[in-house]
Specification:
This protein is an alpha+beta fold. It is 38% helix and 22% strand. The protein starts with a strand and ends with a strand. This is Translation elongation factor EF1B beta/delta subunit guanine nucleotide exchange domain-containing protein.
Length: 229
Amino acid sequence: MAITFSDLHTEEGVKSVEEHLAGKTYISGDQLSVDDVKVYAAVSEKPSDAFPNASRWYDCVASHLAKSFPGKAVGVSIGGSAASAPAQAEELCLEQAPAAAADDDDDMDLFGDETEEEKKAAEEREAAKKDTKKPKESGKSSVLMEVKPWDDETDMKKLEECVRAVEMPGLLWGASKLVPVGYGIKKLTIMLTIVDDLVSPDNLIEDYLTCEPNNEYIQSVDIVAFNKI
């Protein structure tokens, strides 16, 4: 919505700015904008202490402009019909269409080049954005399995070959050993490391280790230990 001020060279005009700035820092929005610069240019001098909001705002805009224009100013006095003919109303309409606002921003840089602090902050924001786009590394787990044969006549060497022949992304077989169970039967205990998002131990057992042709040697598989790495 457009904001309109009239007769900013008069006390009545400054009063309208004072009332508008009650509870605000800038004319529109929460940052210095072209609106502030236009109103600042229309106010002939710093408002008196009778207008604390307008006075504070005036100093704030002046401070920003001083940083953008570091040259030494000697002070100028500008005469015109606005000051000499009160009957002539000077109306400042701040309605800005998006395209016009974009043109103003392109034509005039009020704040000069970025400071080192601003550049560093911008770089940190960009780095933070890139970090959020990176896929999170999946966790890993260490698993100990017991692989049991059908009987004492099962070829345990073949059994272990069947186990280690199972390959898939995120699966790494580790150390193994044969452990006596009784009646001449031995079971295979084997370590494996898995990437949690890629390998499901239950799926590994049901769809690979205990299905054909591996079930010729393997009767069952149990998970003895499962630890996150």
